[in-house]
Design a protein that fits this description.
The complex is a heterodimer of chains A (275) and B (290).
Chain A lengths: L4 H28 L5 H5 L12 H32 L3 H16 L2 H15 L6 H25 L3 H9 L4 H29 L26 H10 L6 H30 L5
Chain B lengths: L2 H45 L10 E2 L4 E2 L2 H32 L5 H12 L3 H20 L6 H25 L3 H9 L4 H12 L1 H17 L2 H6 L17 H9 L10 H24 L6
Antiparallel strand pairs in B: 1-2
The chains are: A mainly alpha (275), B mainly alpha (290).
């Protein structure tokens, strides 16, 4: 067929992209998967031998991401509800939008610097699980606002009008009509936020630290999987740090994939029949 | 008290809570601006203007705070990444929306979305395993370089950029494409003059989002750029970006240490850059504001 040169080039570009990602994921799985075992998943890391594991990192990742999400999902949803359902003076909304977009695109290392100055240096907290949770919450908040705004805007105005016309108050409309209709999109958006948070590392290096303690606790150092991967690949002197980094990467990817898969499934199941 | 009055009271409380959450977000944002602005002010009061932003030498212990190497590093890495990633992302979008059958589109979007969730340290790991040796072979030196960082970043932003481009291309009505083809335009002409032409604004917005991600990425860059504080005179030279240098120096210059506030200056530059990008998107009109 004539006149399809650019289409052919696009296909070549796509094949190239697939090849690059195939190489990336293939190399990671090839080097990392042989190292992954049940022992690797629960043992503590070791600088002296290649027999260490990532048990504490796994626990830290789950607890810190869970706690940060638990703090930011209600806060983010509430701010998004104000933005879409209730509204405010235009000036307030303009400042709100500019602020949330700026915070959303802000490099997370800058958030890390702020948390370091406020919480570690200012409030004298240790590099710990607790400081890390606060850092992750600040990173996650604008993202949750963003996905919530998108989910709420997806609800047709006719739903709200019908509910208000039947005499429901704004709050009842929100509770019984808008939130149930937006639930599917909310779940899938929150899933993306959690997946992103699991891979977050720049904000944690100087707030949660790059090591783990023998005893788990709120004020114990809270290295996560992503930070551990960075640490192994840049600073560690452990034998086979490379392969261990790859194995950590495989576990991290599996975790992210699992979160995305489960939330997508749940979102699909929650999807209203008629939309 | 009737049910209605009770509902109204609940609503006032709810409204107050939602307003408080939004106000708190704005307050956190202003706290960022305030802390970084105050830190920058103190930096200039302490060290003066001359040996700072416009200098080429960065040696914080000796009181030399030239930030030009990092600004140059950030800009060149971002430029390389966006120039490499944009054609690839456009290719993916064109292939997904105009070449492959439409029933594959949901699966493609799902896959691209999942790739966008790959943590940045994994791209850094891959950069060390493959890109750095490749650059070493091509350009000599150690391979830890601005070029390696640019390539790693390019791969990292391709999924996000593709997803935005696919969303933009999906907005083009099918009948415009059919109309153009029916008038005798070739597929290429239709692509260039109808499809891409009609989604210029969202494509520009996607580009700005990509610039923001590339400029703000820390980990993947820090792992492959080499962390040198000299001015990178060519792309195969090692360097540092504003973000990677902040990460390297938080430990060296903790709050209270001599020269700590140079980190505030770097962070404020990044904050200003991101605010500029937000205003730019607002001007283009891709997002609805207000």
């Amino acid at each position: 067929m004539k006149g399809t040169t650019w289409h052919r080039l696009a296909v070549v570009g796509s094949v190239l992209t697939i090849a690059v990602f195939g190489l990336l994921l293939g190399d990671l799985v090839w080097q990392g998967l042989p190292q992954v075992s049940l022992g690797f998943l629960w043992k503590t890391p070791s600088e002296l031998s290649s027999l260490g594991g990532i048990g504490p990192e796994l626990l830290n990742t789950l607890v810190m991401v869970g706690a940060a999400s638990a703090i930011t999902i209600p806060l983010g949803l509430a701010a998004a509800i104000l933005r879409i359902e209730y509204g405010a003076r235009p000036g307030f909304l303009l400042v709100f939008d500019r602020m949330r977009y700026t915070l959303l695109s802000l490099p997370t290392v800058v958030v890390g610097l702020m948390i370091y100055e406020w919480v570690i240096a200012g409030m004298r907290w240790p590099l710990s699980v607790g400081s890390g949770i606060i850092a992750l919450a600040v990173v996650n908040w604008p993202f949750i606002v963003d996905v919530s705004v998108a989910a709420l805007s997806g609800v047709p105005d006719s739903f709200r009008e019908a509910s208000l016309a039947l005499g429901a108050t704004k709050y009842l409309t929100l509770l019984r009509v808008v939130l149930p209709s937006a639930l599917s999109a909310l779940v899938s958006g929150v899933g993306m936020a959690i997946a992103r948070l699991m891979g977050e590392s720049a904000v944690l290096i100087f707030t949660a630290g790059i090591n783990v303690s023998r005893h788990w606790g709120w004020s114990a150092p809270g290295e996560t999987l992503a930070v551990h991967l960075w640490y192994l690949r840049t600073e560690s002197v452990a034998p086979h740090a490379d392969a261990q980094a790859a194995a950590t990467g495989v576990v991290l990817l599996l975790l992210v994939g699992l979160v995305l898969y489960l939330t997508q499934k749940l979102a699909h199941w929650l999807k209203p029949m008629d939309t | 008290m009737t049910v209605h009055q009770k509902n109204l009271r609940t609503e006032r409380v709810q409204h107050g809570l939602f307003l408080a959450a939004a106000a708190l977000l704005i307050a956190v944002g202003f706290a960022f601006w305030g802390t970084l602005g105050w830190g920058t002010l103190r930096f200039f009061l302490q060290h003066g203007l001359n040996r700072t932003i416009l200098g080429l030498r960065y040696h914080p212990i000796q009181g030399e705070f030239g930030l030009l190497p990092f600004i140059a590093g950030s800009l060149s890495v971002t430029l390389i990444a966006v120039v490499l990633a944009y054609p690839l992302a456009l290719s993916v979008a064109v292939t997904a929306t105009m070449v492959l059958p439409h029933r594959w589109l949901p699966a493609i979007r799902q896959t691209v979305g999942s790739l966008a969730a790959i943590p940045s340290v994994i791209f850094g790991w891959w950069g060390l395993a493959m890109v750095v040796p490749l650059v070493r072979k091509l350009g000599g030196g150690t391979g830890f370089s601005v070029a390696a960082a640019g390539i790693v970043l390019a791969v990292m932003i391709v999924p996000t950029l593709s997803l935005l481009a696919i969303h933009a291309a999906m907005r083009v009505p099918e009948r415009w494409v059919e109309g153009s083809l029916a008038l005798g335009a070739t597929p290429d002409q239709t692509l260039g003059r109808v499809v891409l032409q009609s989604i210029r604004a969202p494509l520009a917005e996607a580009g700005i989002v990509a610039v923001g991600r590339a400029l703000g990425e820390t980990m993947a860059v820090q792992m492959v750029i080499g962390g040198q504080t000299f001015f990178p005179h060519n792309v195969f030279a090692p360097g540092a970006t504003l973000t990677s240098e902040i990460l390297n120096d938080i430990g060296l210059l903790p709050p209270g240490a001599f020269g700590h506030h140079v980190l505030d200056v770097m962070a404020l530059l990044l904050l200003l850059a991101m605010y500029g990008l937000v205003l730019l998107v607002e001007r283009i009109g891709g997002r609805e504001i207000g």
